[in-house]
Amino acid sequence: MAEASQAFGIDIGGTGIKGAVVDTSNGTLVTPRKRILTPQPSTPDAVADVVASLLTEAGWTGPVGATFPAVIQHGVARSAANVDPSWIGTDVDAVFTKATKRDTDVYVLNDADAAGIAEARFGAAKDVRGVVILLTFGTGIGSALLVDGVLVPNTELGHLELDGHDAEKRAAASVRDENKMSYKDWAKRVEKYMSHVERLFTPDLFVVGGGVSKDADKWVPRLTLNTPVRPAELLNDAGIVGAAIAAAERHGE
User: What residues contact 114, with CB distance under 8 A and at least 6 apart?
Assistant: First the structure.
């Protein structure tokens, strides 16, 4: 049953699909987070079946938002990161809406964008005016750009060029793991990358997320940037919360 200030958030990743009901007035999970392994291959029909099962099990009838690891333009996937390439060109909104047999659309957005919305509403960027850039360091580098709390979607700043390479090939958290780098050495690469972003956008705040944000004290203090840097606060719930907020706001328009 849906309350007026609640929405269902789904976070779709390469290994797991998580979902829960969110109180969009304060960003907290109303129900326990349910996680199902991402089907392999992660084709549209297979992933849509998981999304449908999460909603059926929860008995949810209200607004639904879902993150997706891709550039999402008006509901359509324009890329595919860690999911089946058959998603490219697919109307993800339509696929999920049809699979879940809903009267209102399932609203889909990029996963880093969802995390940015969550952090701007209830996390490290709450009440911060001006330009905020969230960077998530994981397998790659995701990004979200917000101006006075309003999202500018699909920035994909992890693909800026750095030392002749895609930046995420030099500074993602996975690069640190693969090369067994210390946080000290990895932080030098992160700083070089973030300095480049800083010169382009002159942000008022950087928020850094991804699994490495829980070890922020080991590398964030090593960054010497002009812009303040704060670790993300919502951690594993950011995608679910951001997707739910986006869906609730779209539903209310």
Answer: 9, 11, 65, 67, 238, 239, 241, 242, 243, 246
How would you class 60 by CB atoms within 10 Å of its CB: exposed for 0-12, middle for 13-18, buried for 19 or more? buried
CB neighbourhood size of 192 (10 A)? 14
For domain 127-232, which CATH number applies: 3.30.1050.10, 3.40.50.720, 1.10.1240.10, 3.30.420.40? Answer: 3.30.420.40
* R_g of the chain, CA atoms, integer Å: 18
How many residues are there in the chain?
Answer: 253
pLDDT of amino acid 4: 74
Contact between residue 119 and residue 192 where contact means Cβ atoms under 8 Å apart: no
- What average pLDDT does the segment 105-122 reach? 97
Contact partners, residue 55, CB within 8 Å, separation at least 6: 8, 19, 64, 100
Q: Is residue 161 helix, strand or coil? A: strand
- Helix axis angle, 44-58 relative to 92-99, nearest 10°? 50
Q: Of 1, 2, 5, which Cα lies nearest the Cα of 252?
A: 5
* pTM of the shown model: 0.94
